[in-house]
Amino acid sequence: GKQGAPGGASGQSAGGRGQSLNSTKPPAAQVSVFQTEKTHSELVSMLVRIIFCLHGAALAAAQELNQKPDRPRVQEPADLVQEKQSFRETLSWKYPDPPAEEEPRFPPDFKLKPPTAANSVSAVCRENSVRVEAKKDLLGIGKPVQAADVTLGGCPATGEDLEAQVLVFESELHRCGSQLLMSEDSFVYVFTLLYTPSPLGNSQIVRTRDVTVSIQCHYPRKLEVSGGLLHPNRTPFIDSKSSEENLYFSLTLMTDDWQFVRPSTQFLLGEMMKFEVSVKPFHHVPLRVTVDSCVATVVPDIDTVPRYSFLGNSGCLFDSQLTGSSSRFLPRSQDDRLRFEVEAFRFYQDHSGVIYITCCVKARAAFAAADATNKACSFLNGWREASGAHQACTCCDTDCQTGSQSHMTKTGDQFEQETTVGPIVVEERPLW
């Protein structure tokens, strides 16, 4: 019986120890569930934070897109469709025939300038003499005459007013070729002022005309002549004396503003004749046009006389140098066009006033620089070239080795052709 008691006590003691162990350490199954619950809550929290961050980034990106301009959408190229090229319009010309001539553009309301009176001669009749004053610009064209070309009945000028540019003639009533005419009540002394222009320089041309002005001094026949001034009666009068390369050149008279073809070939002495030369380079590289030479004649034949070569030596405009005129090339603005102007003139002792201008026109490749044989030089206080290549004009006073002047020739990349304008009628300018 004593042995069983300890065994029972021992069993209780063991059971007590078992309860003590259960109170200090949970079972393994309970620990696993607790850890799983804790890990799940952390994942949920992490997912919430990630979703919040993604939402904030999305809002920031949307705001940035709203602030930036819309970017063009790239469109994918459409399918390319090839088709055969064809002419939808018929050609206006056919090789080798030249193209149709263009109708010239004339100004709508063109009128010749009415001539203005010069009023360049005055006279004062004294008791026994006469004093005649003649402006050196006798014809009113802005060009002074040579004093030696003006006489009063063969008597030269007795003085000259340099400031007023006036020639002075003084003569007694019975001298200097005067004529005495008598009527019933008066004496009339008649003087004649003569102007006979000399050829300009070494040329055979003039830009003025013969002028005869009659000056009359009237004196009463039955009254004593006093020393008072008498106004003369002036009675002026005029003595009745396609190439194979398809190049197309033209020489045309233009209006004063260079906008239209001039409808009239009529000019007054001293007016500017404006010429435009051009080339149309069909089927050819761009070309530069120049004027090699120009000759004036009274008929359309350059081999006749009288003749006046006012442009030559491969593009040197001599007229201003020979005669003191304002003739010149205008600055070049286009390679295929060139403009120049010449003061209107007549031939010495030729009273028809008709002239023809024949020019040898040249063209060469536009990229070629101006040189001694291809230039446009004017004499304006020295030789000046229209395109600015003034060095090319240094030979104008010597010999620039001019080439052939046939009707139409081809020399390498250079072409030439003769072109004539006329008849040009140059009329005399009235004095009064």
Order of helices and strands: HHEEEEEEEEEEEEEEEEHEEEEEEEE
Overall 3D shape: elongated
Please tally the helical runs, counting DSSP H or I stretches of 4 or more residues.
Answer: 3
Strand count, sense and barrel status of the largest sheet are: 9 strands, mixed
Distance between the termini: 183 Å
Helix content: 10-25%
- Overall pLDDT: 75
Question: Would you tell me the structural class of the helices and strands?
Answer: alpha+beta
Beta-strand percent range: 25-35%
The total of beta strands comes to 24
Q: Unreliable runs, pLDDT <50, ≥5 residues?
A: 1-24, 223-244, 403-412
Global Rg: 53 Å
Task: Provide the descriptors you would attach to this structure in a database record.
3 helices; 432 residues; 9-stranded mixed sheet; 5-stranded antiparallel sheet; alpha+beta; 15% helix
General description of the model:
It contains three helices and 24 strands. With 432 residues, it is α+β, with helices and mostly antiparallel strands. Strands 12, 14, 15, 16, 20, 21, 22, 23 and 24 form a nine-stranded mixed β-sheet that branches. Strands 3, 6, 7, 9 and 10 form a five-stranded antiparallel β-sheet that branches. It has a four-stranded antiparallel β-sheet with strand order 1-2-5-4, with no helix packed on it. 15% of the residues lie in helices and 33% in strands.
